[in-house]
């Protein structure tokens, strides 16, 4: 704690491990020390045996894997902030990249498991287009067509806008050519930005994020890779990971320490231009994932970047300096002050514009779950390196990781694209061709007749089923037959 401008090393401000899963916010203007605060929190959690997932948006958190610089300045800062036992130390770190064009271990997700709501967020679709995408996902499910990568989704949309496809959707709504064109153009743009390297298999298994090595929690750093041109893709992917954890982790109740802590850097990207359905699901996830033993921290420049419904769920607050150069800045400052408990010791509006680098206004939850008094705090220095280790070192660490053997090579198995292509060409699939006799042994073919409906078509043709699906599509088309965020059910732990 800082008192009259001087740090008191005996007055420590700490977050109890048991309240970490009540979530938190780290905010402040650029250059005020947010990243180093994240680094310090991550390494202390790791030392306590808690795995951490972080977005390394700017690429400057790789120093967590290497011991810090034991300079006199660093030692003096440690003593000033009450860390008399400060010694340099690195943490176990995994470097992962979205898609195959990054420097870390490539990670992917299938289109099916990503779901229509999250994919709509990435593509920038409106609510009508999002609902149409949900209908497309539903139809693919009923036909047993796996949507693994972008070409699978494109082929399904092309089929559903054809004469044959329109008949398939008769009775449960249709896909207009205009809406399909918007979605297809958005898919092409996503592919041009590197999205084709991200969607596919092998898909990331989120249990790989829960590892502990030698008593220390593994810190998983995600870098953008080819998604640098589309940062919304990055933040939405992290939300997909969190949603998958929500679906698959068992209920734990209150734990002495969390099973995992999830940190969203540049969190404003997650909420910018988000649909109402997306925001509702984020709020639900943040509310309920606490009971799964997972803590979530958002890091952004302004607390107003976070919707009020989500902000109200965050127990710990670490607010670095704010700037008030414009009328909008002043409004944001006033709103920020009103979100803190009242204090007689600080003029918060003045304090928030007077904080030095590496200082913050902090309030957390006590062991009893009550907010602690507001404290002007000087952040203790990380024990790991406060710099990047360089791309060569990251590549070497990624190539030597056991996860690289699991995720390094792309798999392209038969899915919607191959099945629909074979159907259009009138050719049997590879498996069917093994069971067919040669053509000379067949009797002359009868006159052409319309092919009978398959089982899925018979079901969809039933009037009762049509009525149900029509109602479901109009009420919540983007979430038909799906769970949170429209993501498909996957593994069970």
UniProtKB/TrEMBL annotation:
Domain Helicase HerA-like C-terminal residue range list: 8-492
Signal peptide per UniProt: none
Region feature Disordered, mapped onto this chain: 429-456, 471-493
Biased composition (Pro residues): 440-450
UniProt xrefs under Gene3D superfamilies: P-loop containing nucleotide triphosphate hydrolases
Pfam families: HerA_C
InterPro entries: HerA_C, P-loop_NTPase, T4SS_component
Name of the protein in question: Helicase HerA-like C-terminal domain-containing protein
Naturally occurring in which organism (per UniProt): Rhodococcus erythropolis (strain PR4 / NBRC 100887)
